[in-house]
Design a protein that fits this description.
The chain has 251 residues and is an alpha/beta fold. Helix content is 43%, strand content 15%. It has a single domain, classed as Aldolase class I (TIM Barrel, Alpha-Beta Barrel). The protein is globular, with a radius of gyration of 17 Å. The relative contact order is 0.15.
């Protein structure tokens, strides 16, 4: 039985004081991690605050990105070794906004995944298609290509422990959402791709999230589906009450 995982992605939002207030409001109120893994993905500026405020609680902290080298002349990049030293547990990589606005490739995302594992953290690897790809009915092959390239040369043990998030680009921040049946179908494509690459045992263990206009009002519909193990949530994770409501909706 795969444990559900709900991860908030704040994107480029909040100030340091707002991040601290959020952590103080939720850290001691989230459900036990026997029930659900609760994760907040924050801009790098606030990670130390979140790690400090969540210490001794079941709230886990994710970075929104990192580089694939631990150190060097890479001005402005985020070292995975430094994230691990800070106490960060997850790193979101391959988000559609990183791919679209910053032109990240599958190969770069794969290098980041390796660096994250090498530093004892877990990647949340995102995949997803554009509206054009979806309407052309090429979603399955697009997703299979992203997953195959993103997981290249990772071990079965690594893939079993990581998280993959399916987030259709056309459903992020648009108010549109893939319905639960579509989400389950494409999360199933992700799982079948993992099975082709690593076998059924790994495919049955890897956790797959859906992301795209998920709210407390609709999360239960997604979580009821066989292949959906959680959600990567944007706007609805920004307020403490809303984030807690997402967690409470997980049965």
């Amino acid at each position: 039985m795969r444990k559900p995982i709900i991860a908030g992605n704040w994107k480029m939002n909040k100030t340091a004081s707002e991040a601290k207030a959020f952590a103080q409001a939720v850290a001691t109120k989230i459900p036990s991690n026997d029930k659900v893994d609760s994760v907040v993905g924050s801009p790098a500026l606030f990670l130390e605050t979140l790690v400090s405020e969540s210490k001794g609680t079941d709230l886990k902290v994710a970075a929104q990105n990192c580089y694939w080298e631990n150190a060097g002349a890479f001005t402005g990049e985020i070292s995975p070794a430094a994230l691990a030293d800070l106490g960060v547990q997850y790193v979101i990589i391959g988000h559609s906004e990183r791919r679209e606005y910053f032109h990240e490739t599958d190969e770069e995302i794969n290098k980041k995944a390796k660096a994250i594992f090498a530093n004892g953290m877990l990647p949340i690897l995102c995949c997803g298609e554009s509206l054009e790809t979806y309407e052309a009915e090429k979603t399955a092959e697009w997703i299979e290509g992203q997953i195959t390239a993103g997981l290249a040369d990772l071990s079965a043990e690594q893939v079993s422990s990581m998280v993959i998030a399916y987030e259709p680009i056309w459903a992020i921040g648009t108010g549109k959402s893939a319905d639960a049946t579509i989400a389950d179908t494409i999360c199933g494509v992700v799982r079948s791709t993992v099975e082709k690459l690593y076998g059924n045992d790994v495919a049955s263990k890897v956790r797959i999230q859906y992301g795209g206009s998920v709210k407390p009002e609709n999360i239960a519909e997604y979580m009821a589906k066989e292949n959906v193990d959680g959600a990567l949530v944007g706007g609805a994770s920004l307020e403490a009450d809303s984030f807690l409501a997402l967690l409470d909706a997980v049965k």
